[in-house]
């Protein structure tokens, strides 16, 4: 079957299932909100019950959220939650933890060095690269502007 691009695009759009946008937005909102609420509860518990200063409580909260995300990813539950939550699970720390752990789990069979070691940052590597690059550019601009 030889179609032009425009014809194929119309054909694909006509046969593609419609996305329930309102339902997806609602799920992303409430599940993402629950992740943030859990983080806030953890921080409050670490400060009030454990007596940690706010900086240490924030750090421990981040570590806890990363650990829980890694555990859920290893058990295969994070992907099931993400199918329902969509963007709600991409709250920065949980989404980043999942993006580091998932390729590592997939590459386990290839060994620790050539598998896990080589592929652990497959998804998150570009994010780290461009974040560092953007930070360097911003810092340079900030420094130059500060000279005047």
Could you describe the 3D structure shown?
The chain has 148 residues and is mainly α. The protein has 7 helices and no strands. The radius of gyration is 21 Å and the shape is extended. It starts with a helix and ends with a helix. 13% of the residues are buried. The model has no long low-confidence stretch (mean pLDDT 88).
Keywords:
about 150 residues, mainly alpha, 7 helices, extended
Sheet-strand content, in percent, reads under 5%
Structural class estimated from helices and strands: mainly alpha
The biggest beta sheet reads:
none
- Spans of 5+ residues with little confidence (pLDDT < 50)? none
Order of H and E elements: HHHHHHH
pLDDT averaged residue by residue: 88
* Computed Rg: 21 Å
Number of strands: 0
Report, as a whole number of angstroms, the end-to-end distance. Answer: 64 Å
The global form is: extended
Number of helices: 7
Fraction of residues in helix: over 70%
């Amino acid at each position: 079957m030889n179609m032009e691009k425009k014809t194929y695009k119309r054909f694909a759009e006509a046969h593609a299932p419609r996305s329930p946008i309102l339902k997806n937005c609602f799920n992303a909102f409430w599940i993402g909100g629950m992740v943030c609420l859990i983080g806030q509860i953890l921080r409050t518990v670490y400060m009030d019950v454990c007596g940690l200063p706010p900086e240490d409580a924030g750090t421990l909260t981040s570590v806890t959220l990363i650990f829980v995300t890694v555990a859920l990813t290893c058990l295969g539950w994070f992907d099931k939650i993400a199918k329902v939550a969509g963007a709600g699970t991409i709250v920065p720390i949980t989404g980043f933890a999942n993006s580091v752990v998932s390729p590592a789990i997939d590459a386990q069979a290839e060994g620790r060095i050539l598998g896990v070691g080589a592929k652990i940052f497959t998804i998150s590597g570009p994010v780290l690269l461009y974040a560092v690059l953007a930070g360097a550019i911003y810092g340079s601009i900030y420094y130059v502007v500060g000279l005047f």
